[in-house]
């Protein structure tokens, strides 16, 4: 019998959004660690690959040995992930479009929201990315197909033309909306989601609205979480500890200190703005650079809230960032073990490809306005 909650760990498999970073330490090594931890606890996971970055690596590989090496490492890492039995799906940071390489450092665009690009740019990026990923993986895994997409920097507005591009490309699951998310500089506003917690069919022209009837797309909202004072204290204390104890990684990546000003792009600066509330910080379920006690409290809170819904099968998306995992492997190991032990009769883990098969077999799991879920 299926359990009440299906946990979907999705990893944003990428380097830094401003173009800084090296795939060796931000992707390859932490991906192997996450795979090992997940296998230890019999946990499935989906790696969402920023193929826009891969396309740029490909463009510069022939003229730069360092870029060639990073491209090779990233491609081989994806094949290792598949060989380990994990899902690989599509993630795109459009700021890589037209990126340039100067003194060994990438310069990316300040536009991180794919919804604001032209329809032709959107379709070309999706088409090229899917062709690249299919071409890399299908020779080794013939049944592999891309069915899920997560927007880089949560940017999916305006959503009409991009959702159309997804449908035409065979994408069926969309991630990266969360109740309360708002970043005006990036054109992102999810403060009025019609469905905040359950999967739904979106309106073709507005991803924040539930469609009247079923359609070809399914939106899986990230589960919002507003830390209570103790949880917020735990998170803030660990953040301070990390800043005091760690060495800035900028020394490894800055080939030219003059590039720093153009790479400190942050159109999402307002997304974590504190509110006047007993729970002033709104975020979502995630694993990365958070201590175990915080992870435990956040998951307990969300599961407790979702128990109030009558739906018998509820997906719970947990966002992961491999680039943040270093130094927190023991916390993640302990957290996944905690879920297995405490929620063994309620929770099972799945990946996005498997979950698509499940909802295709049981459309009643999805919400649209006329089904009264």
Task: Write up what this structure looks like.
It is a single chain. The protein is of the alpha/beta class and 373 residues long. The protein has a single domain (5-371), classed as Glycoside hydrolase/deacetylase (TIM Barrel), CATH 3.20.20. 38% of the residues lie in helices and 17% in strands. The strands form five sheets. Strands 1, 2, 3, 6, 7, 12, 15, 16 and 17 form a nine-stranded parallel sheet that branches. Strands 4-5 form a two-stranded antiparallel ribbon. Helix 2 (51-60) runs antiparallel to helix 3 and helix 6 (229-245) packs antiparallel against helix 9 (292-306). The mean pLDDT is 90.
Summary keywords:
373 residues, alpha/beta, TIM Barrel, 9-stranded parallel β-sheet, 11 helices
Describe the structure concisely.
The protein is an alpha/beta fold. The protein has helices at 23-40, 51-60, 65-83, 119-137, 160-169, 229-245, 250-253, 260-263, 292-306, 329-342, 352-361; strands at residues 5-13, 46-50, 87-92, 100-102, 105-107, 148-151, 173-175, 182-183, 188-189, 202-203, 206-210, 218-219, 224-225, 283-284, 286-287, 314-320, 347-350.
